[in-house]
Amino acid sequence: YSSGQPFYDAIAEESKLFKIAADAGNVKSMFKFGLMSHKGDGIHVDKNNAIKYLNIASEKVCPGAKNALKK
Fold first, then answer.
1. What is the DSSP letter of 25?
2. C-alpha dist (Å) from residue 13 to 9, 36, 47, 69
3. How many angstroms from the chain centroid is the CA of residue 66?
4. How many other CB atoms are there within 10 angstroms of residue 59's CB atom?
């Protein structure tokens, strides 16, 4: 695992699953996918996507989403 590729592949797969759950209305997944989009964790950095998902999570009263939007 010296290249880190299996770990990165697992994170990329995780981001796909969080997006599916977020799009299905899971608020915690919206928050997590928004953070992943913001940081580029397993996916390319996409600030617009991050703001979109974090705003929705914030509107649905997800703890931490409002704080994440401030960063």
1. T
2. 6, 12, 20, 24
3. 14
4. 12
